Amino acid sequence: MKKTKIPFETQCRAVRKKHSGVQLMEIFFQFNDLAASKERLNRIMSYAVKRNTWIREDPSAIVHFRQSMQSFVRAGYLITLKKKKSPLPTRLKKTSPLLLGLLSEKEYRNPLLVFKKAFREYSIKEFDYFICGMVYFALGAYRNIPESNIVNPYIHLTKMLDAAHLILERRGKNR
Fold first, then answer.
1. How far is residue 67's CA from residue 73's CA, in Å, rounded to a whole number?
2. How many structural domains comprise the chain?
3. Is the pLDDT of residue 86 over 60?
């Protein structure tokens, strides 16, 4: 008898299409709203640090959000690898503090700085570990709370969401 090898990869997994970081961010924001993403990340974070409570949302939606955030982090890393400055720095006359959000004026002018700073402090694996840990603690009731510093990666992720939205917004205006 002849042994045949069964391919275990799905067809969509076998086709590997290269995307740029900006394209991956556009895909992320097609499926996730900025405000809803920040709110869900905030809710996951708050439930992760509470003891003996868990988030009352559909676990599949939380896991899907975790996967999309991980791809978002990779898209941000791809943007920092580009040699040329694709996101255009802009000059500001007067900016409202509400418009800036968590970003400083310098980061608002050049959102790429947010990604560069985040990946100087943390690697992709560290962001993945943070996201997975927060989802793990948010989906179950545990006596323990996360051991590592969870505030800094959370702040970086929220700033990266703001910066990516700015990059896409400015890119859309310049087309």
1. 10
2. 1
3. no
